[in-house]
Amino acid sequence: MNIKLLCVGKLKERYFEDACDEFCKRLSRFCTLQIIEVPDEKAADSLSSAQEEQVKEKEGQRLLSKLDPKDYLVALTLDGAAPTSEKLASQIGRYRDEGKSLAFVIGGSLGLSPAVIARANAKLSLSNLTLPHRIARLFLLEQLYRSFKILSGETYHK
């Protein structure tokens, strides 16, 4: 199974890089994972709503340019479905069995552009809490690994 993880911005802290690398290594048993980072848009600390939309639009264009038309896109949003780990595993198993190429997208500090959300085939929420994108990336990688462990019948933390 092919999975892309599209992210706005780079990880800046070494400990997040190390943790994400560990889950990427673990996931390599189950899927081909590609992490694609696009630059975040440099912006002032205080932006008008119109300026925020411009930032999201520019970042969104960068994200959309990295997608293949056949990618089944899952956007991480606050209003997305919030499945249990078992339900997420079941969905990933179904996508795998259908031969879908999955792409997950994590926006920048302002979120995802309307164009990215419109392109998404599904929306996923990792929590009702707002998560910084670097934590969302690590959390998603862990849940993908957990999903594949569940699908393969292997034990993992409960």
CATH homologous superfamily heading: SPOUT methyltransferase, trefoil knot domain
Tell me the radius of gyration: 15 Å
Major sheet characteristics:
5 strands, parallel
CATH class: Alpha Beta
* Category by helix and strand content: alpha/beta
How many domains, in number, for the residues?
Answer: 1
Q: What's the tally of helices?
A: 5
CATH topology: Alpha/beta knot
- Provide the spatial order of strands within the biggest beta sheet: 2-1-4-3-5
CATH architecture: 3-Layer(aba) Sandwich
Question: Helices, strands, pairings?
Answer:
Layout: E1 2-8, H1 14-27, E2 32-38, H2 49-64, E3 71-81, H3 85-97, E4 101-106, H4 114-119, E5 122-124, H5 133-151
Parallel strand pairs: 1-2, 1-4, 3-4, 3-5
Helix pairs in contact: 1-5, 3-5
